[in-house]
Design brief:
By secondary structure, the protein is an all-alpha fold. Helix content is 75%, strand content 0%. It is flat.
């Protein structure tokens, strides 16, 4: 019996490794294709040479291309592609966390109003000029603060006699999302004086990766990586949580601690992702 279980576990591990390898190869292929697309055509071999040279910090390949081509590939296209990958992975992770928290397979960061809160915080910073002393990090701080305010409001609304159920949390999240969406619209149209800040906020709300730079890619990657590591460490508890709170507590899981970790991880990651990409529907 034990040998059969070990064989099944070995097969699952093998299938997972093969699947992961295929996904990584697809990501590399799609990344290469994405970088080649644009107004200026650049061959895949030149792109590979440029990336290798810039990543290594030395000219391992002889430079046969123009400087503007290198700038387009390394400073414009490649950061956007990497940022798109991180944003997609971050939103996917937040979606998985929300599904584990609410027991709803259709849950996403919008369910608890996190994305709407982050949007309201970022728009407030852009238009009203809050936290301007933080410079380029003001929008990130505002988005994260808005996401934290939204989740705190959802939890306070959903709390009933000190206990929060998944149904109450979802309903509270929908109400919170509507409130912060209305707040965002009020800020945008209430302070619409035709200034560049209003235009910037409207452009940001559409969702774009045009502002992706290597400095932004670095800190978004760090936040996403730390969050993913934390979630991987408690992956078994998350699996148990999917069985229901009562069953999870019976099996010895600290559901309160796990839910708090889910909320904190989703809030921080969503706030950072939304601050650099705008409101992207998941």
């Amino acid at each position: 019996m034990k040998s059969e279980i070990s064989k099944n576990n070995g097969r699952k591990t093998g299938r997972f490794a093969v699947t992961l390898l295929i996904v990584l190869l697809l990501i590399a292929f799609v990344t290469t294709i994405s970088v080649t697309l644009g107004a200026i055509h650049v061959s895949p071999d030149e792109i590979l040479k440029i990336i290798v040279n810039k990543a290594s910090g030395s000219d391992l390949f002889p430079v046969t291309w123009e400087q503007k081509t290198e700038n387009i590939i390394w400073n414009i296209r490649f950061p956007r592609v990497i940022m798109a990958f991180i944003v997609g992975a971050g939103l996917s992770l937040c979606g998985v966390l929300m599904q584990a928290l609410t027991k709803n397979p259709l849950a996403d960061p919008y369910v608890l109003g996190i994305s709407s809160g982050a949007s309201a915080g970022a728009v407030s910073v852009i238009i009203l000029g809050w936290f301007s002393f933080l410079g380029g990090y003001a929008v990130i701080f505002g988005a994260t603060l808005g996401a934290a305010a939204a989740i705190c409001l959802s939890l306070s609304i959903a709390s009933l006699k000190g206990r929060i159920t998944s149904t109450q949390l979802v309903l509270a999240g929908i109400a919170t999302s509507a409130l912060f969406s209305a707040t965002t619209n009020m800020i945008v149209y209430g302070f619409n004086n035709g200034s560049d800040k209003t235009k910037m906020a409207l452009y940001w709300m559409v969702g774009s990766l045009s502002g992706a730079t290597w400095s932004r890619v670095k800190y978004v990657f760090i936040v996403a990586a730390v969050t993913m590591i934390l979630i991987i460490l408690v992956s078994r508890e998350l699996d148990v949580l999917l069985l229901g709170d009562d069953v999870a507590e019976t099996l010895g899981a600290d559901t309160r601690r796990i839910k708090l970790l889910i909320i904190l991880a989703s809030t921080v990651l969503t706030g950072v992702v939304v601050s650099v990409s705008g409101v992207i529907g998941f």
